[in-house]
Amino acid sequence: MDYVLIAHSILRWAVLLFGLWSLYNALSGTFSKRNYTAGDNRTSLFFMISCDLQLVIGLILYFNGMWFAMMKNNAKEVMHDSVNRFFALEHALMMIIAWLLVHIGRSMLKRAGTDIRKHRLSLVWFGLAILVILAMIPWPFRQPGIARSLFPQF
Ligand code: HEM
C-alpha cells in the first residue's frame, strides 16, 4: 500500500476546505466591508500550511515514483502522451504555481494597510490559487489514465 499517495489523496480535502473557506471569507469581507478578523487570518494560515504539506508529499511522490525518471530518460515521449505529461509535468508545475500564489498572497496581506485591502488581496491571490488547484486535481471525470478516485482505495 502506498501510504504517501494515500496521504496526498486525503490531504487534498484539507487544501480544498481551507482554500474555499478563505475564498468565502474574502468574498464576504469584500462585499460587506467588515473588519479583517483573527479568524480570517487563521483560515488562510491553515490553507497555506495544508498546501506546504501537500507540496512536500507531492515532491516525494514525484521524485520517488516513476514520473521524474520518465522525464529524465524520455522527456520527448512523455510530452507526446497526455496522461504521462499530466503527472510528469502539468500537475506538479501548476500545483507549485498555486503554492506560490498562496505564499505571495499571505505575505502581501501582512503588509496591507487597511482591512478592505486585506479582503481584496485575499480574493485575488487565494481565488487564483483555488482556480489552479481545482483545474489540476485528477478528478474522476478526467480522461482515463489521469482520473483518480475521490477517496483513496484501501
Ligand atoms: C495543492 C496541491 C496539490 C493537490 C491538491 C494534489 C492532489 C493530487 C491528487 C488528488 C492526486 C491523486 C491521488 C490518488 O491517486 O488518489 C495527486 C497525484 C499526484 N500528485 Fe499531487 N497534488 C498537489 C500538489 C502536488 C505537487 C506540488 C506535486 C509534485 C511536485 C504533486 C505530485 C503528484 C504526483 C507525482 C501524483 C501521482 C502519483 C502517482 O499516482 O504515481 N502533487 N495529486
Concise summary:
By secondary structure, this protein is an all-alpha fold. It has one domain.
- pLDDT averaged over residues: 97
Topology as a string of helices (H) and strands (E): HHHHH
Distance between the termini: 8 Å
Number of helices: 5
The total number of structural domains is 1
Which structural category do the helix and sheet elements fall into? mainly alpha
List unreliable stretches of 5+ residues: none
Estimate the global geometry from the Cα principal axes: elongated
Detailed description of the structure:
By secondary structure, this protein is mainly α. The chain has one domain. The chain is 81% helix and 0% strand. It has helices at 3-32, 38-64, 66-80, 82-111, 115-136. Helix 1 packs antiparallel against helix 2 (38-64), helix 1 runs antiparallel to helix 5 and helix 2 (38-64) packs across helix 3 (66-80). The longest helix is centred in the first third of the chain and has 30 residues, at 3-32. The model has no long low-confidence stretch (mean pLDDT 97). Protoporphyrin IX containing FE (HEM) binds at residues 5, 8-9, 12, 15, 51, 54-55, 58-59, 61-62, 65, 67, 87, 91-92, 95-96, 98, 133, 137-138, 148, 152.
